[in-house]
Design brief:
The chain is α/β, with parallel strands linked by helices. It has helices at about 60-75, 95-100, 115, 135, 205-210, 225-235, 255-265, 265-270; strands at about 5, 15, 20-25, 30-35, 35-40, 50-55, 80-85, 105-110, 150-155, 170, 180-185, 190-195, 215, 240-245, 250. Helices cover about 20% and strands about 20% of the residues. About 55% of the residues are buried.
């Protein structure tokens, strides 16, 4: 049975700014765009090409992202790149528009290429996992790929993130084949994407309330639960100082680490749904194939 791993309000991180963002560090901030977080990496007033956007929100979020970027980095300031944790609809919602307008490269893991160059669709969402209305509505969520192939740059095999000095990418599959998390060892900062989240993303009520608690990746789009468990354990072993996830509030400190450790230790009991089409039979998503009953 899926359970929550709660943490206290003292673990919350982020200082609100007038531009709609919340700063975790001088050069690390996020903004919630309806139901998903986008991350801004770069010092305030970094200027044109002096910062990086991580993920690109949901459809309709372009104005919020651009407005926050201009307020934070300067009028007309374009990023040096857009880095993707993965290519699900709520992380690439305005990717094509922003990439074209800003004329920027897009970095992603090689296993996400089919979903970013227009050649394959993700497996169908699974509304049978339970958890709330957002899960039930998941068949309505788009799975068709975007096509940014001409701008796509595959992350280098050495783990570096060229437009983000000091950061490394970590392959954290399970939620999607090429999901990556971003790690800066120097100060313990982790951008986890949807490898795990800090709200019950299946529930409209939980998403609205945003109470801090640890959950596995959003269940209705996760296609390989064994890989997802291994990814969470790999991230917990880093002992991060602060985490910002794709959904929910950023968290920091010792209480955050206790919650992440509990999620990693008991992942199968607290994060994996009791039933679902991908629980026993992971999807072969590398070629975009949809789930079929064995």
């Amino acid at each position: 049975m899926v359970q929550q791993v709660s943490v206290g309000a003292s673990a919350r991180a982020g200082e609100a700014a007038g531009d709609g963002s919340h700063a975790l560090l001088p050069d690390l901030a996020y903004r919630r765009v309806v139901m998903v977080n986008v991350v801004f990496v770069g010092a305030p007033d970094a200027g044109d090409r002096g910062w990086v956007l991580v993920d690109a929100g949901i459809p309709g979020g372009k104005g919020l992202i651009k407005g926050t970027a201009e307020a934070r980095f300067g009028a007309g300031a374009r990023p040096a790149a857009i880095v993707l944790t993965h290519g699900h609809f709520d992380h690439v919602g305005v990717l094509e528009d922003l990439a074209e307008e800003w004329d920027v490269p897009i970095y992603a893991h090689a296993a996400e290429r089919p979903y970013l160059d227009g050649s394959a669709s993700y497996p169908s969402p699974d509304p049978t996992v339970g958890g709330g209305a957002l899960a039930l509505l998941s068949p309505l969520y788009p799975t068709k790929p975007v096509d940014v192939g001409v701008r796509l740059v595959i992350l280098p095999a050495d783990g570096t993130v060229p437009p983000m000095p000091g950061w490394r990418w970590i392959h954290t599959p399970g939620h999607s084949p090429g999901h990556v998390s971003l790690w800066r060892e120097a100060d313990g900062s982790l951008i986890a994407g949807d490898a795990f989240v800090t709200t019950a993303q299946e529930s409209i009520y939980a998403v609205a309330l945003q109470e801090p608690e640890f959950h596995g990746p959003p269940m209705y789009l996760t296609i390989d639960w064994s890989a997802a468990a291994a990814s969470v354990r790999r991230l917990a072993a880093l002992r991060p100082e602060r985490v910002v996830t794709g959904h929910g509030r950023p968290l920091e400190g010792a209480e955050m680490r206790r919650g992440l450790d509990a999620l990693a230790q008991d992942f199968e009991a607290v994060a994996v749904p009791d039933h679902g089409r991908y629980v026993a039979h992971p999807a072969q998503a590398e070629d975009g194939s949809a789930y079929r009953e064995p």
